[in-house]
Design brief:
mainly alpha
Amino acid sequence: MNKDQVKGEAKDIAGKIQEEAGKMIGSTEQQAKGLQKQTEG
């Protein structure tokens, strides 16, 4: 894995966490932001 792949994987994981947190608190805004991070990753 190179540096860019590690950064991409980190964004993907962070996005998944943010998406799940948004689901737990009922925030569609946080879910959308999480999905966006996953896409960037």
